Structure formats: structure tokens, C-alpha cells
Please model this.
Amino acid sequence: MHREPLVVILGGGYAGIRVALDLAKKKAAQIFIIDRNPYHMLYAQFYETATLFRSEKSLETKKQQRAENQELLNSGAIPLRDIFSHIPAIKIEQGEVTSVDPNACAVIFGNGRKLYYDYLVVALGSKTNYFSIPHLEQNSIGMKSVNEAANIRNRVDELFFTTPKHKKITIVIGGGGFTGVEFVGELVGYMKKLSRLHGRPIGNWACVVVESGPSVLSSSAPWVARQASRRLKDLGVTVLAGSAIVDVWPNLLYLGKEKRPLGFDLLVWTAGVKGACEGSIIKVASFDRKMCLIADPNLRVSPYQNIFTIGDLASTFDARTGAPMPMTAQKAIHEARYVSRIIRKLIKNPKATLVPYKPKPSKFIVPIGGKFALLEAGSFRWAGFFPWALKYVVLLKYLVTILPPMKSLLYVANELRLFVRNDA
Ligand SMILES: Cc1cc2nc3c(=O)[nH]c(=O)nc-3n(C[C@H](O)[C@H](O)[C@H](O)COP(=O)(O)OP(=O)(O)OC[C@H]3O[C@@H](n4cnc5c(N)ncnc54)[C@H](O)[C@@H]3O)c2cc1C
Model:
């Protein structure tokens, strides 16, 4: 009897979702999408989730508190069932994947259960890299899950409640890359709002970005780095460039070889990510120095012809410059579209000739506090309100590719309603 090919996708993020939807659209296979969480995380919204302002009035009853907490989590995540429940060819499996047995073509879950595949797509994303800096992980919060983003918000809120008004609150952001810069820009608005609410003098808190490179966003074009530095200065953020965190204790960190001390009330670590599976899930595979899976020209995990890797976990290179492709949602989606085409082709003809993958350069919008953002798309650059507004158009454009149009529109409208509170 003819059996439909089974495609198992590890990871329900930008990459995994795109492959699943593209394969289902062409009715190419039976698809299983596996994730430890029942939702798709919208990382680009986390800096807003981490600074979401709630009025005290709305937290008077337990029911209101629960509703507000749900609103906080929903602001950075979408349930996978909202994306897939109407597509019979896609089954969602919630669980922790612990290993893959490529010889038996099986995925193994934490509880020992096995799921067999004809084709496997490994799209497990990335996780926070603490670079073995002593005690950093225990004494900081990362920004790689919606729960961490919500925890940051709650910790900032708590600091304003518990710190005496005469004592300065210092929040340190480790890392002046996109995540650190976007977060600190919004954090300033949130702290100003909390200061007004608690009657705290404006000068009695500080936001400090610690960056080991020569400036914030130093890996971007010089224009972007300059504009971002200027914007942060205008917002009152202190940037300690050329400073590496070398050790962290509760409320105290040390910078550089000379171990300069810097006190803090909250340390948010945004300075690095690495591949999420670190060799423990697929043992016989090659990894680069960021622990990302090395992909062949067809994004397969050598030596296996039926295992693909995409998204943050896949180590791919810009053919023109030879530089590693930055980990972005755009990269994940572009690779996913390619792999779904390749799998469809192989299902029709296992001996088909495959064209190699051609990476596409990413465009950037970097919101930095209030209704201000920087846009860089090739040689086109813009700073101000237009890129900020465009960010929501980009979000809507993405959402309509995974959700019904009305749901997407309502989601964006709700995000706008929640997220402009810090600007008021
Ligand atoms: C704070 C922040 C802001 C960002 N902003 C932007 C932006 O503005 N624009 C942009 O283009 N990119 C942005 N990025 C980067 C972008 O989010 C990633 O490049 C993108 O998410 C990669 O997609 P992915 O599918 O590879 O991984 P993910 O979207 O991370 O999906 C991986 C999935 O795998 C699941 N998973 C991992 N391990 C296991 C396991 N063992 N078992 C089961 N499930 C597992 C995870 O739960 C997750 O759902 C941002 C990232 C961060 C952290």
C-alpha cells in the first residue's frame, strides 16, 4: 500500500513553521512539527514584552492579574495551534527532543518515545551563549524566551517597588548588538514611566550598556553604529564600549583585564547566542565554532542525505563575502522555503539533481526607543519615524503568511496598543 512520506520538523520557530506550511500547501507529505513549547516565539517583539507597562488599576483582582500575565506572554508568542489547527496534514507534537538516530531514521524524545521519519528538518534555533564567563549565567537574565522577557519586565517593576527612592537603580545590559540596543532604547521609556508612577527622581536610575567591541552595533555599517550611538546618548544611556565582562557576582561585575568593578541591580545578558543542540542531539555531524550545524550546499547535514538544517542552527555563508550569514528570521525563512522545495523534489524523484542554496542578504530595522528606528537595506538608509512604522508593516506581512489576515491584523493592532504605552 502507498504510504505518504513522513517529514519530521524539529523546532516550531520561523524556519520550522515555514517548511511545514510550504509542504502542506503542496500536499507533499504527512508532517510532524515538534517543539518543547506550544507556541512560536516572536523574538523581535521581546524588547517590548520586557518593558510592557501595566497600570496598577488593572491589577486589582487575581483575575485581572492573570489576564495581564497572559497578555504579557501573548505579546511575544503565538500558539502553534492557531497556525496549524486547520491543516490536517500537520500534526503538532509538544516535547523535548533529546537525540536523533540517523541510522534508524528516528527522533527520540526525553521520555524515550521515538518518532520515525523519511525526511528530517533540524531547525532548533539558538540559545544564549555565556562564553564560560564565571557566574554570569546565575547572576543575569537572558532574552531568548518569552518567559525571560516577562521576567525582566517583572524584575524592573519589582526594583521600583523595593528600592528606596534615594538609592540609584542601575540596570546593566551585557552586549551592544541589535538585541541590547533595542532593549535599552525601550527600557529608558519604561523607567521614565515607572519613575513618574513611583515619584522617583528621574536622575536616580541608570541604564548602562557594556560592549566589548569599539561601539554599539559595531558589526553593522559605520552609519548604523554612529546613529545608534547618538540615539542612545540622547536617551541618556551610558555605553561602556571596549569593555568585556570577565566575572559576575550578585550585584557586582568586573570589566576587562584590570577587573574594574561595576555595581548593578539587574544584569540582562544579550551578548551572544550559539546553536541550540551543541552536538548532543545529532552526534555524527560537524559543528562550527558557534556550535551551529555545518550544512552542505543543499542545506543537508553531511553525511545524511535525508537530514536538513535551517535557521539559526544552520551554519551558512554569504557566497560573495565568505562571511557567516547573520542569524535572522529572514535567513531562517529563506532557507526554509528552499528546503521545502528540495524535499518536494526528492519526494517526486529521489535521484533529482538539486540546485545549491543561494543565501539572501538580510535587511535590518533597529527600533531604538519611542517611535524611532534605523533602517538599512543595501545602500538604502533611514533614521526616524518611518522605519519604526515600517517595522509593524513587516510584522503584519510576516503574520499574514502564517495566520488568517483578520487574526494578523488584530494581533498587530493589539501589539501597537500595548507597546506605545511607554512613549506616552
Ligand atoms: C531578542 C531577539 C530579537 C530578535 N530580533 C530580530 C529581528 O528584529 N529581526 C530578525 O530578522 N531576527 C531577529 N532575531 C533573530 C531571530 O529571532 C532568529 O534568527 C530566528 O528566531 C531563527 O529562527 P529559527 O526557526 O532558526 O529558531 P527559533 O525561532 O528560535 O525556533 C527554534 C525552536 O526550537 C525549539 N527547540 C529548541 N530546542 C528544542 C528541543 N531540544 N526540543 C524541542 N524543541 C526545541 C524552541 O522552543 C524554538 O521554538 C532576534 C532574536 C532575539 C533573541
